[in-house]
Write a structure and sequence with these properties.
This protein has 245 residues and is of the alpha+beta class. Helices cover 34% and strands 37% of the residues. The protein has one domain.
């Protein structure tokens, strides 16, 4: 999943939902024009961040863990090309350790077949989990409007933050929460709680946003948890620096 695409989709989402967040934190009788100015400031802040982010390159680290044990780690250099599209180049990884020798050829082949089968099953499961997440991030404006019409949207102001909570968004009893810093007009976090076929196949997604010294917002970390399979995927973006062509 492209974190940048997710960020861009969230900008669209907030353009629709910002009026709810602003009204929730406003004093009674606040001038409508002032509220609209706050909404415009939020949208402008997001657009500015997207523009400034194109001047940076950074390292994306993806770690896949099974039952708490790290199974794979991949790093990629990320930057925007001349065509405006996000580019990713693999960062050289250290050579893998040689596999231990099997005690017998036949037993070794059987063990290898079992391992490969489990890998294929897990890979298919993760593909389904990621596909489900894509239904939530970036949020679908039509689905948000449908949730609003059904009365499934709640706004929860907190100290320095406004949480926009949507339930029954894609599936019955699911929940998506978008955290916004109304003072700085920037995203703080997005959290999703859903499932695959049944509630026991729970899948959660947590996206945390960071800010660079110049105020540019970016997706700092995305964590996907598939508890039914004890799988966790963590994607971190770090080391932002001026792009080198």
């Amino acid at each position: 999943m492209s974190l940048t695409r997710s960020f861009r989709g969230l900008c669209v989402c907030l353009a629709l939902t910002a009026p709810l967040a602003i009204r929730a934190g406003a004093a009674p009788g606040q001038d409508a024009a002032a509220a609209q100015a706050r909404i415009a400031a939020l949208k402008q802040s997001l657009q500015d961040s997207q523009t400034r982010l194109r001047q940076y390159e950074w390292t994306e680290t993806t770690v896949v863990s099974l039952k708490g044990e790290e199974k794979s780690r991949k790093q990629q250099r990320c930057y925007y090309g001349a065509d405006g599209k996000l580019q990713k180049q693999p960062v050289a990884a250290p050579p893998a350790a040689a596999p231990a020798q099997s005690g017998g050829r036949g037993r070794g082949r059987l063990k290898k077949a079992i391992v490969e089968n489990k890998k294929e099953e897990l890979s298919e499961y993760m593909e389904r989990a990621v596909a489900l997440v894509h239904q939530y991030v970036p949020p679908n404006p039509d689905a948000i409007e449908k949730a609003k019409a059904a009365g499934n949207v709640a706004v929860h102001p907190q100290a320095g933050q406004v949480n926009l909570e949507l339930t029954n968004y894609i599936k019955p009893a699911d929940k998506m929460t978008i955290g916004v810093d109304p003072a700085a007009n920037r995203l703080l976090a997005v959290n999703v709680a859903s499932y695959l076929d049944e509630p026991k196949d729970a899948v959660t997604l947590a996206v945390q946003f960071g800010a660079l010294p110049d105020g540019t917002s970016y997706t700092a970390q995305t964590t996907l948890d598939a508890t039914a399979k004890n799988v966790r995927v963590v994607i971190q973006n770090s080391g932002h620096r001026p792009v080198q062509r």
